[in-house]
Design brief:
- By secondary structure, the protein is α/β, with parallel strands linked by helices.
- The protein folds into 2 domains: 213 residues, FAD/NAD(P)-binding domain (3-Layer(bba) Sandwich), CATH 3.50.50.60; 142 residues, D-Amino Acid Oxidase, subunit A, domain 2 (D-Amino Acid Oxidase, Chain A, domain 2).
- 29% of the residues lie in helices and 27% in strands.
- It contains 10 helices and 18 strands.
- This is Glycine/D-amino acid oxidase-like deaminating enzyme.
Length: 394
């Protein structure tokens, strides 16, 4: 194989994680030969495109707070963050905040403990008594809650496809190469990945590979004889019209059995199915019964303005679900140290992509975590069956 066919890094998966890694690698080391292979550049079934596109500081682990602290600044000042002209300006970050509700005294205590940790890392989380929740959001019923944890800044939602487009355009401007091609295999020699096989271009040599394949990440690992505790989980998202509940200032509300946020004149809402489990990666059939059977009654109990509701559209997205602890699995695989993983985000990958892409690039280029210590999210914990659990999974 001729030298020009060899890349420094081949990234499998070109949605937001792969694009972020390509951006940071080529920014940190100009001239690095980076190839990004994406099987479907329409991104029609990508978690990036089907995300509810939100960002929060309210996580229960410090490392996730640190990841989001960097991410929100990067997203807010996106043009300046990229540092090159990518044809994408503002991502339209709308900082309505997140509101987590507790329904027990134990839940209130947990909210208070976690909020203190979040504030220690720079977040603006405050825990409100029920009457304070109602004073701020008078359209809500609060008789059944014990507290609400609210982030008044640095939390909200943004343009998901703008983030992806910006990363891809900036990485390309810095020299990364993007191809529409499906990875079909890894070549492993001497305990290292030496090549990636693509369906159209054949086998291409590399010095390192990155698994950014989202819900298909476990398949890539299996090519090298490795197990990965990541599987696709289906989520049906509903866009609803509630003419008696027009509250564009509302936060993203996380209640006991659903989440809800405003979207222009409508609302976006979803729930976790009671029989939640793995799905086929090609299964995008909606579970339409979930709105009437599970969500609507809870919405009406929370706010009487949801007495008249109509589903105006819906879509299905997949979480790349980490079955061990619902946290990202990051960094080099101990058994193949030049295979880097950025997998298993369990629904919060989009917002974590700026910091995680930077972290993976730093580790690949320097041999260790730099800007943020991401070792709590290492592959080693998966191999050792040592969960590092994130309790605030939405």
């Amino acid at each position: 194989m001729e030298q020009q066919d060899r890349y420094d890094v081949i990234i499998i998966g070109g949605a937001v994680m792969g694009a972020s890694a390509a951006f940071w690698l080529t920014r940190m080391q100009p001239g690095l030969r980076v190839l990004v292979a994406e099987r479907d550049t329409s991104f029609a079934q990508a978690s990036t495109a089907l995300s509810v596109a939100s960002i929060r500081q309210q996580f229960t682990t410090a490392v996730n707070v640190e990841i989001s602290r960097f991410g929100v600044g990067f997203i807010r000042d996106f043009r300046e963050s990229l540092g090159v002209e990518a044809g994408v300006g503002s991502l339209g970050l709308r900082e309505n905040g997140y509101l987590f509700l507790s329904h027990s005294d134990e839940g209130r205590v947990i909210l208070e403990e976690v909020a203190a940790m979040q504030r220690a890392h720079g977040a603006a989380t405050e825990v409100l008594a029920p009457e304070a929740v109602q004073a701020r959001f008078p359209w809500m019923q609060v008789d059944d809650i014990t507290a609400g944890s609210f982030g008044s800044r640095d939390e909200g939602w943004f343009d998901n496809m703008g983030l992806l487009a910006g990363f891809r355009a900036a990485a390309r401007a810095q020299g990364a190469e993007f191809v529409t091609d499906r990875a079909t295999g890894l070549t492993v020699e001497g305990g290292r990945v030496t090549a990636v096989t693509l369906e159209k271009r054949g086998t291409i040599a590399c010095a390192a590979a990155i698994n950014a394949a989202g819900t298909r990440a476990a398949e890539i690992c299996r090519w090298a004889g490795l197990d990965l505790a990541v599987e696709p989980r289906k989520r049906t998202v509903f866009v609803i019209d509630a003419p008696n509940a027009r509250h564009p200032e509302a936060p993203l509300l996380v209640d006991a059995g659903y989440y809800l946020r405003p979207e222009h004149e409508h609302w976006i809402t979803a729930t976790v199915p009671q029989d939640d489990g793995p799905c086929d990666p090609d299964d995008f059939d909606p579970d339409l019964h979930l709105f009437e059977d599970v969500i609507w009654e809870q919405l009406y109990n929370r706010a009487p303005g949801f007495d008249a509701v109509k589903v105006v559209r819906h879509w299905v997205g997949h979480y790349a679900y980490n079955t061990l602890d619902q946290n990202a699995i990051l960094g080099p695989h101990p058994e193949l140290p030049n295979l880097f993983l950025m997998n298993g985000f369990s629904g919060h990958g989009l917002q974590q992509s700026p910091a995680v892409g930077r972290g993976i690039a730093e580790h690949l280029l320097t041999g260790g975590w730099q800007s943020i210590d991401l070792s709590d999210l290492s592959v080693a914990r998966m191999l050792e069956n040592r969960p590092f659990r994130e309790r605030a999974v939405v």
